[in-house]
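INFO  loader      accepted 1 record
INFO  loader      residues=313
INFO  predictor   begin
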Amino acid sequence: MQSKAKAKDRNVLSKSFVADDTRKTLDVPYVKENDKEVAIYDPVTTLWTVPIPGTNEYLISFDGTIYRTDWKNGKLEKFLKDEVNGYKKDETLSKQVEGIGTPLWGSAPAVSPTGAYVLFFSERSMVNGEDKNGQLWIKNIKTGDEQPVLSGGAGVIGWLNNETVILDSQHIISLNVETAKAEILIEDGTINAALLKDQLVYQINPGSLTLQSIQTGKKTEVPSLLINRVASLQSHGSWVALHNQEKDGEPDFSVVLYNVDEKTWKVIHAPPNTWIDGVSWMDSTTLLIQTSVKGTLDEATYTVNIDEVEVAK
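INFO  predictor   done
INFO  writer      dumping tokens
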């Protein structure tokens, strides 16, 4: 890739898993990185694999609930309780809800930084009409306790600390998962934001980023000629990776990196005759970049070590 960094073309492989309760099977895509098998996002099936900190395992939404992988043995282990607060899994999954179909017992898990808590969405409250919007639940890994903390669904922007998660719903909010106390940070929930340490980062105007302190609400504008319109933001540590549309109305994208501590920028351009379709973090220094060949259905996945990418001048 045109970044003067060595891009490694990754062969996307697939591993088959069997659910321990239903015996249903699921194929999970992965790549090999330094002899380690690393699960990746599948844009075709939209299968998300959520890493569990301190382990080589993942949480996966599958068949209306959430499983924990036993990667070595190709097993999916039941993660959520079958009965809690009067709700029963088998009963929930046997029902049909108008406009929804089969309600979800659990989906979209998000793990706190130490793995102490898992936030997830459930539609079990829709079955008896208690909450037609569904609910966000929290699971305490140490105690096994599972409780609802917020009505409705929300996208997880990131974790400020082990107890506080930043969510994107009707507003961008902070939620303390221990007390269920929510606080509005940004009224406009349509803003596409990421969490960069203790700041929200998002784009209001083309050609710049906005950084907003969560503690004080203070906003700082950070302009750059390297960015135009940002389609998505993915943060890790001090870095945010931007999927950047280079020119309005054109399909050419680059990956632009900004380091909030060093105030430095880096840019990764697509290989010749390809488009960059998406970007995500594999670890603190490695980006996974998905591309497609122009005019074909061919796709390729690359990894880039950001330490090898030169700082833009």
